[in-house]
Structures are given as C-alpha cells and as structure tokens.
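In response to reviewer comment 3 from the previous cycle, which asked for concrete evidence that the modeling workflow produces usable outputs, we include below a single protein chain processed end to end. The sequence was submitted unchanged, and the resulting structure tokens are shown without manual editing.
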Amino acid sequence: MQLSLNSSWRRLFGRYARFCVVGGSGVAVDMALIWLLADPRLLGWNLTLSKVIAAEVAIVNNFLWNDQWTFRRCAAGGWKARGGRFAKFNVICTAGIGWSVLLLNLQVYGWHWNVYLSNFIAIVLVSVWNFWLNARFGWKAKELAGV
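The workflow returned the following structure tokens.
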C-alpha cells in the first residue's frame, strides 16, 4: 500500500512538472501579448482587456500541449471528448483569469509594482488552482482519485 501511495504521488508530481513546463510556454505567450497589447509604445490598450485576451490565447496554447503531453494517458476519445475537456479547462482557467486579473490590478494599481513582475506573480499563484482542478475534473487523473 505504501509503495502504491508513493508511486501515485510520484506520478502526480511528474504531471505537475509537465503542467508547469506547458505553463511556461503559456507564460511566454501571455507576456508577449501583454507587451504587444498594453505597452503604450505599441498598441497601448487597457491593461485588463489586454490581460484577458493574452490569458485566453495562453489557455488555448496550454490546453493543446496539456492534452497531448501532460495528460495524454487520460485524454481518451475523439474530438467530442477533446471538446468537453477543453470546455472544462477553459471554465477552470477562466476562473483563474479572474483571480489573475484581480491580483494583477491589486499589485499594479494598489501597490504600484511593475506590471510584468506582477503578471508573473499572479500566474504562479493561479497555476496551482488550475492544475489541481484540471487534473481532477478535466482529465480525471487517477492519481487524484483518492486525494
């Protein structure tokens, strides 16, 4: 029994590590779009609108990589099943975007921190939320069944 528990936690940690690597690509997408959309020297759009757009593009990027790599053993079914997983992923991550936007605005406008550092901090804090709920409900990872 002990070996099984350790093995499950090891698999869970491996998935989380892959989720974080995929998240790193999402951070790059998100940061690049924030820079393009919100920087006054470029498009100069509203920060909140820019964040929402950047985050949604990053969500699509992350879903595709997570479905193919992080959770591929849990990703059974055809396009319909994939669409269902994407819908769940998007809902969970959209709630995460809400938290991220709240944290970003608090740090930038409330505490006057750098927008890029604040965005990075918000992403890191929300990543645990996103992993846990997506692994448990989106892909139904077996190592979370008893957790």
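Residues 2-144 form one domain. We consider this sufficient to address the reviewer's concern, and the full set will be provided in the supplementary archive.
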